[in-house]
């Protein structure tokens, strides 16, 4: 199939990697899988062989037509559309279960797709996603590490994300300029457990990480909080006055959010 750089298409051609990816979602017997950006269908073939049904969401009309011609309609349904417009809720209802997801996500649209999946969490059980290695490092980072930031907290508040393996450029055709990593994301949001209001907490996370080199207190002051209120909140939750957001666990960020209300 022709490569279309504008769509971020780098097709996987490593047989061992394809098998490894297909098993990264766990047992697919009897399950419905959504594949984001199946391209020429290398991973699609492995998923169709394992799952009861695969929903392939492919934006490129030529590739969508190719997929329809390559696979039996009884095992694969092709949606020729932007994944950001795909209705995961309707797909889950049609399948009668929470969905599994695999996607090789183009770098230029990785964050919007992650947010789309997070917003669709009630319809999803788990996902295995392939992204640029540096992005996977940020998504799966732990507090105190250099990579821990807004993306880490935003993803992990919707459920644990763990890195699985990394693939070199040579595994793709044409070879990209970067390594790609696969991570698994289990959808188990923690908002209720931590007493958080989703619509208010996520902007707060962006606020405290606004300038990573600045302290929490400085970022909060820049966001309009008064110094006495900040000092009182930090003392209440036992966070040092000079602490930075990158040192805080999800639980500590939630406690600080509550203390500032």
Report on this structure.
Helix 1 crosses helix 2 (42-50). The longest helix is centred in the last third of the chain and has 11 residues, at 198-208. Helix 2 (42-50) links the parallel strand 2 and strand 3. The protein has eleven helices and nine strands. Residues 1-8 have low confidence and may be disordered. The chain folds into two domains: 5-186, Vaccinia Virus protein VP39 (Rossmann fold, 3-Layer(aba) Sandwich); 198-260, Orthogonal Bundle (Helicase, Ruva Protein, domain 3). The chain is 38% helix and 18% strand. It has helices at 15-23, 42-50, 61-70, 88-95, 110-119, 133-139, 150-156, 198-208, 216-222, 227-236, 250-260; strands spanning 11-12, 32-36, 53-57, 76-79, 99-104, 124-132, 161-167, 172-173, 180-186. The protein has 261 residues and is an alpha/beta fold. The N and C termini lie far apart (55 Å). The strands form two sheets. It has a seven-stranded mixed beta sheet. The protein has a two-stranded antiparallel sheet with strand order 1-8.
């Amino acid at each position: 199939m022709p490569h279309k750089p504008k769509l971020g298409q780098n097709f996987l051609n490593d047989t061992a990697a394809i098998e490894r990816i297909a098993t990264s979602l766990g047992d697919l017997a009897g399950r419905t899988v959504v594949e984001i950006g199946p391209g020429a269908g290398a991973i699609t073939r492995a998923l169709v062989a394992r799952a009861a049904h695969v929903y392939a969401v492919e934006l490129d009309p030529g590739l969508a037509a190719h997929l329809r011609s390559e696979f039996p309609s009884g095992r694969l349904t092709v949606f020729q559309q932007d994944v950001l417009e795909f209705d995961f809720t309707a797909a889950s209802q049609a399948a009668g279960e929470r969905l599994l997801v695999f996607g090789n996500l183009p770098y230029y649209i990785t964050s919007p797709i992650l947010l789309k999946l997070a917003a669709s969490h009630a319809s999803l059980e788990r996902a295995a996603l392939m992204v640029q290695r540096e992005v996977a490092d940020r998504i799966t980072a732990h507090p105190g590490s250099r990579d821990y930031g807004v993306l880490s907290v935003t993803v992990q508040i919707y459920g644990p994300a763990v890195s699985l393996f990394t693939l070199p450029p040579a595994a793709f055709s044409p070879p990209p300029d970067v390594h790609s990593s696969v991570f698994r994301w289990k959808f188990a949001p923690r908002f209720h457990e931590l007493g958080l209001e989703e619509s208010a907490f996520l902007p707060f996370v962006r606020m405290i990480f606004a300038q990573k080199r600045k302290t929490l207190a400085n970022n909060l002051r820049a966001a309009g909080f008064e110094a006495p209120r900040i000092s009182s909140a930090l003392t209440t939750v036992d966070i040092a006055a000079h602490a930075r957001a990158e040192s805080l666990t999800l639980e500590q960020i939630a406690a600080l959010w509550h203390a500032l209300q």
